[in-house]
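Human: Here is a favour to ask of a fellow structure person. Comparing notes only helps if you start from a blank page. I am asking you to supply a protein in sequence and structure-token form. Write it directly below this note and I will take it from there.

Assistant:
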Amino acid sequence: MQMRFDGLLGFPGGFVDRRYWSLEDGLNRVLGLGLGCVRLTEADYLCSHLTEGPHRVVAHFYARQLTLEELHTIEISAVHSRDHGMEVMGMVRVPLYTQKDRMGGLPNFLANSFVGTAKFQLLFALKILNMVPEEKLAEAVAATQKPKKAAIDQAGGAA
């Protein structure tokens, strides 16, 4: 994922004008500007989501398995892209584990702020691609939804 200029987490991508590009051609053009070497095809398509409101957008989500070498190449390319430091602050790896305290790792990561449909897309991909066991994913999501009252009470008692 990427940390955006506005502090929100999101996936690499951009807008595609369907008058000139197929979804995959347009996406590969946008990804090529920011990430360099990755190419997506129809086989990498996972889902689409329509956002409601005055600026309706259809977000198409693609995922592709990479080797560690390919991931390193993409991370290096991202630092040298024209958008780095302006639109994108850097790449972020999603922790696919939960620490013994049941908050560290994925639960803490999910407590971040995400742009648009990015959190939904992330959870969908983790589930559908079996990257995190379903029960662990449910626990991580539940941990981010628990009230923070206990932590606030402890902080207040320490003051």
Notes: The mean pLDDT is 84. The chain has one domain: 2-145. The chain has six helices and five strands.
